[in-house]
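Fig. S4 source data, part A: sequence.
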Amino acid sequence: MNFTRESIFITAIRAFFKTFAVFLGIGVGLFVLALGMNAISDNVSMPDKADLTVSADANGNRKLLAETTPVLLRVDIHGVIGIKNLKEEAISNILLSSREGVLAKNRVKGILLHFNTPGGLATTSYAIFSALKEYKEKYKIPIYGYVDGMCASGGMYISAATDKMFSTPASIVGSIGVRLGPSFNFSEVMKKVGVQSLTLTEGKDKDMLNPFRPWKEGEDASLKAVMASEYSRFVNDMVTNRTGIDKEKLIDVYGAHIFSAEKGVEIGYLDNGKATYQEVLALLAEAAGIKEGEKYQAMTIEPSRSVLRELAQNKSNLFRGKIEHVFPMGPYMTSEMSGQVLYLYQP
């Protein structure tokens, strides 16, 4: 009996270590694979492909149709512009993918931008706006926008690339403005606690707005000039492409305020502030030349997500051995946005 009891114990221990070794081997294998892909990605840049999903058309049909069927493509503008899926290269890859594979041979007849964004980086907002304008003019297709939540600041800039803008009654639009900061100055605190700071620079105002010394009068002049230029371009592109907006009122009255959908129609930000998604899809089909009763495929396109690719691109803190300390500046602010000129609504 003692022999049997000892055998069961030894068998259990042996099984445990075998299982542990298997999981350890899998973990080591994934680690080596990630390192290998990272080494490859340092030398070879592979283009990202986009993921396609069949979605419901205006009548609620989402059956997969023949590959010759015309397509209305939904592109989501969700979240902070310049972060994650709303980077310039991600949208560029989406637009390139819309002319390739199953969408080749001019299948895409119209694009619907689905907005829920507070805005984001000024440079990325302008880049996406420009890419959509160029795409629309090159392929001669309509682009409509639909707000379901919020379309503010940089989102409004992107909306200027659309032919028509719609929203739900509860949506919020607006915030035509530019921001940078906030910036803090700790020089008085440092003086009180007896701490000094030294920054070595070459070039006039290279340490502009250094938070560890008193600021000089006028040292922010170049930044103000940049922001004035960004604001002027923002306003001009809005009134040029959304012809119902009064430029003087936009600058002097509406400013960077946000508005209800009803007020957004009055200002000229929206064409219809009481639309449903299905209504907008039907209107886009009509604008795309799809006749009533003619079948079309509604599809959603978004950047492809791959865990291995993210590891290969060195995005995982696990493999970088990195701990990021974040001082939250607001609900939408991230470290990637620090020191950047922003088209961002920040309550």
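Fig. S4 source data, part B ends here. The chain has eleven helices and nine strands.
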